[in-house]
Amino acid sequence: xxxxxxxxxxxxxVLGDVIGEALEHLDKNAExxxxxxxxxxxxxxxxxxxxxxxxxxxxxxxxxxxxxQLEDKGKALLGKINKL
Length: 84
Hints:
mainly alpha
């Protein structure tokens, strides 16, 4: 199982890259790019809040779930960026 610190770094890196890519497309379609950035920030806040939950029954399953959510949401956001 990855540590909390590693999971937080993964969340930060993935969503930071998504935001960077969205900002590169800002000149093409500012409104959609800003919406993607806002969605990435909301996703970041949600996932970090889940990582910081204290009283979870099965920590390993909890963190694995967060990791899979990160992967799914990251792919979805990158898909939106590619459509710009």
